[in-house]
Amino acid sequence: MTSMTVLLFALATVLIAMTCVRANRVRAWREAVNPSAPEIPDSSFTVARVLLLTMAAFGIYYGFQSIALTDDAEWSSEELTSAVRGATDDLDGDTLYVGPHEAPSVDSGGDYALKVEDTVAEHGGGDSPRFGVDAEATGPDASDEAYYTVTADGTPSVFCLHVRLRRDKSGDYEAPGIAGKSYPQYRYVLRVTSRAGEC
Questions:
Q1: Helix then strand then coil, % of the chain, to nearest 5
Q2: Are 94 and 190 in contact (CB under 8 A)?
């Protein structure tokens, strides 16, 4: 809960407490301070109470709005758990085609960590934010295998995503080239698993 939220609820509590002060007590205090002051009518106290309660209601409303905004900007443990599971299922089975003169690699398409972050964020669902996910490559230094430690803003939960490149000869094909030549394309499948905890 942010300091602004706490301030709003505290202010609303003070305003509600002020409406509970009896009119006779206010009159006695006012007379002690300024005996010559005119009498305050009961209708003025009624108007004051309505105004104080209205301001307190606004404070409570905006306090809960602040809580909702904070919740929307941070991940919970349950949200991240569900998102990592969904991302694991989504990423598992992705295919990669490599030419005869290329070296197959888990990260051959660029920064695979960014793809992990985006996929986890997409599977957040509900009120989870679409940002704040971090996937850090944690080894090993191998082309056919990689580990990513996944974290998110707002929760201490940590997950380990393991990606392994598997050769699948059943998907190989000949790609057309120039001058009537063809080039073989070798198929690889990304096998992705995840578990709670650091890699």
A1: 45, 25, 25
A2: yes
CB 139 within 8 A of CB 133: no
Residue 15: strand, helix, or coil: helix
Higher pLDDT, 68 or 128: 128
pLDDT higher at 108 or 112: 112
CA distance 37 to 26: 12
Q: Are 4 and 62 in contact (CB under 8 A)?
A: no
Statement: the pTM of the whole predicted model exceeds 0.90: no
Helix (H) or strand (E) holding 31: helix 23-33
Tell me which of 100 and 147 has the higher pLDDT.
147
